[in-house]
Design brief:
Strand content: 15-25%
Oligomer: single chain
CATH superfamily of the largest domain: Vaccinia Virus protein VP39
Radius of gyration: 21 Å
Number of strands: 17
Shape: globular
Structural class: alpha/beta
Largest sheet: 7 strands, mixed
CATH architecture of the largest domain: 3-Layer(aba) Sandwich
Length: 408
C-alpha cells in the first residue's frame, strides 16, 4: 500500500471489516443496494501520516441528502462563535477590506458571524442541502469541492483571502496537494490558513477508533501536517489543542517565512514523540486496544441482554457506524437509536439496520441503558437528560474504556 501524501510504502494497521457509508441512514427498501467497502487504516513511516487504505468516492459521502448539520449542537454553536471572534481579532485589520473563505462551511454555523458583521466571506460546501440552510442565514455559499480549480474561480471573482479556514473538513479530503496549491494561490501574503480536526494523539490515547470512518481519510498529527503542507510553501507557525470531538487540534499555517513560528509547535512536537506518533509500534498497540475494546463492549451487551435489560442507542452519529459494524452490534442488542435529526428519523442505521427513532420516543420511554454514541458531547447530553438518570437509566460508554455510568 502506498501513501497518498508521499507515495512511499505504508504499513497496514487496523482492519475494521466491511463498512457502509457512515452517514447513509437508509430506508428498508434500500438495504439490498447498500454500498460497502473495506475499512482499513495504514501508517506511513516516511511522512508519519495515519490514513485510510481505501476511501469511497466523495459523491457517495457528500451530496444533496447529507445528514449532518453542525448547528444541531449548542456547544458546537458556541465553539464556532468563539472561533469566528478569535479569527477576526487576530487576523483582520480592516473589516471593510477583509475576505474570509471557509472550506466545508456546512450550514454556515461559523461564517454567519462574519456575515452578520458585513465582512466579505464565502463558504465552499459540497453538499447542496446544508449549503441551502447556510444561504437562508445570509451566508454566501458556493457548492463545490475545494481544490486548485475552485480556488482559481474564487480568486478571479473575489480576489485573495485574509483567512482560509476549515473545521473538521481537511481530514475528509484525499487530494491535499490540490488543496494546498489552491490555498497558496488564494491566500494574501500575510494571510492565514487555519484548520482544526480530530487529533491523532487523542485518538491513540483514548482508543477512540470511532473517529475512523469513510469521511476521515486522515487523522492528523503535527508531524504529518508539516510533511503534507511544507512542500507547497505553507509553514506551520502555531497550534492550539481543542476539546471538541473528543480531542482536536487547531493548526495555523502561513506562507513560508511570513510569521514567527511559536513555541507551541515545538512543545507539541515533543509531546508527539513522547506519545510515539512517529513509531509504527504505537499504532500496532492501538490496533490491539481497539480489539480489546470491541470484545468488552460486545460482552457487556450480551450480559445485559441475558439479564433481560433493555438497551437503546443515544444519537445516530457517523462515529456510531464504525462501532456498530466493527463490533457486529444489531437490533438484537440495541432496540433503536434516538436522534434529533429529522433526516435520520424513521430510517435505519448504516450496515446493522437498527431503527432510528425521534428523540421524543426516548423521552417517553424507560429503557434500562443508553449507549452514548455522541460521547464527545457527554456533558451537554447529561445536563439535558437528568430525567433519564433520575428514572434509573444508566449510560454505557466505550471511550476511553467500556463501562457503565450509574451517576453523571
Amino acid at each position: 500500500m502506498f501513501c497518498r501524501i508521499c507515495n512511499n510504502q505504508t504499513q497496514v494497521i487496523n482492519s475494521f471489516g466491511r463498512m457502509p457509508i457512515a452517514n447513509n441512514f437508509l430506508k428498508q427498501d434500500s438495504f439490498k443496494e447498500e454500498y460497502f467497502f473495506d475499512l482499513e487504516t495504514m501508517f506511513c513511516i516516511s511522512c508519519k501520516t495515519f490514513q485510510l487504505v481505501e476511501q469511497p468516492d466523495p459523491q457517495l459521502m457528500f451530496h444533496e441528502n447529507y445528514a449532518f448539520f453542525s448547528g444541531t449542537s449548542k456547544k458546537m454553536a458556541e465553539h464556532f462563535k468563539i472561533m469566528a471572534e478569535s479569527y477576526r481579532q487576530q487576523f483582520i485589520a480592516d473589516p471593510q477590506k477583509a475576505f474570509v473563505v471557509e472550506l466545508g462551511s456546512n450550514d454556515g454555523i461559523m461564517l454567519k458571524h462574519f456575515a452578520r458583521d458585513g465582512i466579505k466571506h464565502l463558504g465552499v460546501e459540497p453538499s447542496e442541502n446544508v449549503a441551502h440552510v447556510a444561504r437562508e442565514q445570509g451566508v454566501a455559499t458556493k457548492v463545490a469541492f475545494f481544490g486548485e480549480q475552485t480556488a482559481s474561480a474564487i480568486l478571479e471573482e473575489h480576489g485573495q483571502a485574509d483567512i482560509i479556514c476549515a473545521a473538521n473538513v481537511m481530514c475528509h479530503i484525499p487530494d491535499l496537494a490540490s488543496v494546498a496549491k489552491g490555498v497558496v494561490s488564494l491566500l494574501k501574503n500575510d494571510g492565514v490558513f487555519v484548520f482544526e480536526d480530530p487529533y491523532l494523539g487523542d485518538v491513540i490515547q483514548k482508543t477512540s477508533y470511532d473517529q475512523i470512518y469513510d469521511e476521515h481519510v486522515y487523522i492528523f498529527s503535527l508531524l504529518s501536517v508539516q510533511q503534507i503542507f511544507e512542500p507547497y510553501g505553507l509553514e506551520l507557525f502555531h497550534v492550539e489543542p481543542q476539546i471538541t470531538h473528543g480531542g482536536s487540534m487547531r493548526y495555523y499555517l502561513c506562507l513560508q517565512g511570513q510569521r514567527v513560528v511559536q513555541d507551541s509547535v515545538k512543545k507539541q512536537l515533543e509531546i508527539e514523540k513522547t506519545l510515539g506518533l512517529d513509531n509504527v509500534e504505537t499504532f500496532i498497540n492501538f490496533r490491539d486496544a481497539c480489539e480489546k475494546s470491541r470484545q468488552e463492549l460486545v460482552t457487556l451487551l450480551k450480559e445485559l441482554k441475558a439479564a433481560g435489560k433493555r438497551v437503546v442507542g443515544y444519537a445516530a452519529t457517523s462515529k456510531s457506524t464504525t462501532i456498530l459494524n466493527y463490533c457486529g452490534i444489531g437490533k438484537e442488542s440495541i432496540e433503536y437509536i434516538s436522534d434529533t435529526t429529522p433526516l435520520k428519523q424513521g430510517k435505519f442505521s448504516p450496515g446493522m439496520h437498527i431503527p432510528i427513532k425521534p428523540y421524543q420516543e426516548f423521552t417517553n420511554d424507560t429503557p434500562d441503558y443508553a449507549v452514548l454514541f455522541a460521547w464527545n458531547h457527554a456533558q451537554e447530553i447529561f445536563e439535558k437528560e437528568e430525567n433519564f438518570t433520575k428514572k434509573g437509566g444508566k449510560w454505557i460508554t466505550f471511550i476511553p474504556e467500556v463501562k457503565v455510568l450509574e451517576q453523571v
